[in-house]
Amino acid sequence: MRLRPRLQKVLSDLAGNRQRSLLVLASIAVGLFAIGVITTIYVVGPDDMRSGYAATNPPNIAVQALLFDRCAPEHIAQTPGVRQVEAVRYASTRLQTGPNDWAAIDLRTAKDLANLQIGTVTVVNGKWPPGEREIVIDQYKLPDTNAEVGDMIELETPSGKTKAVRLVGVIQDLGIGAFRGAGGFFNAPIQGFVTQETLEWLEQPQPKRYNTLLLTVQGDDQDEVYLESVAQQVREELERCNVQVISVATRSSTEHPNLFLSQAILAVLLVIGLLVAFLSGFLITNTLQAIMNQQVQQIGILKTVGARRYQVMGIYLLLSLLFGALAFVIAAPLAPQVAFPVIDFLTVQMNYIFYGPRLVPEAVIAQAVLAVLLPVSAALLPVWQGANISVQEALSGLSQRNPPNQGWLDRKLSGLRRRSLLLVVSLRNTFRRKGRLLLTLVTLTLGGAVFIATFSVRVSLLDYVNQIVQYFLADVNITLDRAYRIEEIEGLIRQVPGVKQVEGWMFARTEIVLADGSVGESVSLLAPPAASPLVKPILVAGRWLQPGDRNAIALSELFKDAFPDLEVGDTLRLRVEDKETDWVVVGFFQLAGKVSGYSAYTSYEYLSELLNQPGRAVAFRVVSQSPNLNNLEQEALGQAVEAHLSRNGIRVVDMTTGKHLLKTATDGFDVLTSFLLFLAILTALTGSIGLTGAMSLNVMERTREIGILRAIGASDKALMRIVLTEGALIGMMSWVLSSLAAFPISELMSDSISQSMFGGPANFGFSPIGYVLWLVAVSALAVVASVMPARNATRLTIREVLSYE
Amino acid sequence: MLIQTVQNSRNGRAIALPQPLPCPPGCSGEPLIRLRKVVKRYRTPAGDFPALKGIDLDVYPGEFVGIIGRSGAGKTTLVNVLTGVDHPSEGEVWIGDVPVHSLSENRLALWRGRTLGIIYQSFYLMPSISLLHNVMLPMDVCGLYRRGQSEQRAMELLRMVELEDHAHKLPSAISGGQQQRVAIARALANDPDLLVADEPTGRLDSGTAETIFEVFSRLIEQGKTILMVTHDLSLASRVRRVIRLVDGQIAEDSNGL
Hints:
Chain A is α+β, with helices and mostly antiparallel strands. Helix content of chain A is about 55%, strand content about 20%.
């Protein structure tokens, strides 16, 4: 193909200097790649989450009630707005995971599991539906059971005996956590499915009766007000059938229970995405500036033979476009190779179905647009400057408009006479092209700052976990089959060796009564003794409970999110055990945000009185004499307490260690922190290529100078010293700047996550790991990036170097 | 006396073409180059340095002019001002009826590409494209020839400088003398009337320099005007007119003023 000489020049320039072209390509491609990965995750993650959830025909309304067999689903289906109804039975029990170890499990059954209409499940492994004396378990907490398909699983019966069922299948239930006010997906216990017959065999009372009604609606299932109004009518209908409703909750068909967490991730992604785009832009500007510097003489020739400014600009903008196009060809197919495995990795952690790799037009378009915009806009300034250079300046290399002038820094550097001359040469080289230095530093600083910041954000999240520990100070949490006198149980537990303290706590499942009289979200109401030392709350407003408080209540931060106008001193109406009661809000505390659902604390003294059970409790908190027990030691203590109570005829329905409770409360953070680590690597990669590019260009530009130095007797070692000192200097300067910039960036990222998850700003976290790792990375990169081109330069003969174009 | 005027390209105002200097013996017609009181000062950290101090010069079509002088005499500055590569600090530079001193950088580029051929001591070929493309480049950027024509013409010019067989080689694959011949071919690409050469043989051995001089002589026979800066007095003695510069002033003009 015959090309015009101008185009021929563009292509020859591209192919002629492979090292330089590869650097520019890498700079653009890494930016496009990162944007491609981020956009793919940004689009596919929530998409699959929503569509996968919607495909299960999820309930829009879930009604929890006391066991009922009246009011047939067919009857409720007649309620205006209701499309489908399915009655479900949930039963909570325990599953034996070791000789003395137990884990909580929720058993779900329906009349016809094979034909579940609402909230369908996906079979992952084995058989579905379970047959008689068989169980199928959801994949997320399957590892907690220590069982595999085919194994027998021991389940506890209400009488305290154990019965074995066979694990025949593993499913994925995308609806876990959809209607659990205080818990959500991460706090939900193991989910099992059994038939009504198995439930009967497991001695659960009235196994053919139901305690949950799942409904879908006709019409707009995204309209919250509409859903509430249908839910209210269903509640009234049920109450007309004398069904005692405990709670009613609504949710749209596309609102996956973990969508809020993905929003937190997306918020970070957005911040990182913007930073990476900036970073990439700086990289390209720097590299193209270097290219233009190398091309100055050729620009002079072009102008000498008649090329006008726009023609010169056209040549180099076309060159940048070609770089962009080639980078797109490299980055576009690579981005899905990384993005899809990341999305796949998150499917189990965040409980959604990944519908497989596919073309994501948004990602391709974003990359294509950036492939054009990034290099062209980054090239615009250097190309404009280059195209405006006069022929005389271009050919002579001397500027008449800006004659050589020694600035303050140059004079200072010249004054370093007592230092080694080679050091002075390195220092002058470093500061010679101040614009280049500035751009290199900005690029590296941003890359490094994001890298460091991700570690600090991780620490800020982990700090948060450590603060949450203050809500789980008891070593062992015991739940009994009914309320017992506190004195009696406390006395018994204290007989167990190693027990230091015992507290009886009340617990009630309540619901918020809205201003219009309808019932809203479920609230988990905990009631420790008012002066309990076992809770050290993180207060965000108001105060904590005090002895003598009557109907005082402290609310988790999630209330602030849902009811922004709710203030300390306001009254909140709750439905507790079917009675509507007013509570005075005394404070707001921070727990684990949306991960931990709506929770509230009141004093034991008041709640026990309200529930007509003064001096009695179902839940007990036990503290060991030895501080800082690990999970295993807590388990041992709990088993000892449980065994002692059993010997005395007291049945324990649940025993959970403090450490285990903490883990379930903060599981959601693990997903975020591992994701942050991935982003840290991505930004480090971008920054690394930036440094390598800048250093290589610096050395490449100095090939002639290296030749001169060699001609006057400088050894390879001396040349290496000059180049390495310069690289190390830039590396160190960028590290110092990154360290400073990491503070605001980590605050911005932490706040983005915290706003999404907790609805408030984050605690400041500081991690030395990020600083140390980036120092090591930047030093290593500075050496590698400088040594390679310097070695190449020292290998050239003096004649070759001095004739270097 | 008739005063010729032309339009100023920047503001559209009519400006007067300077009257010719007294015509030397044998000259005829209008001068191709007119320099009037041309001063060029360079700003340096040590203060302004005057490189040209009020040059008045006319060059007529078909002349082969050699400019000689010691290093620093102002030879290259004079060529740069003449070709619009550099702007004079004071004075006027006219090539034909074009006031070069008043053209913008962008207009200068196009004017230069169409009107002048410049040859440098360092050849300044584009290293990344073939010899053929180097010669085609001025035609490409100035748009005076269609694509097919420009390639044909470039081959003819390479044939003229006896480098047709090397047309598809890169500049790095040929010798210095050959590179300078390619530069001459490139300078002739748009068929300019005036060729300006700054030390064209400075980097060449005497044998190769002789070849280049022969090419120039043939071009003069074809009616071209050539201005050649040189320090080679043996070559200078063979041109029709020699101008010697000393400290930025014309110390001698062999045509005598």
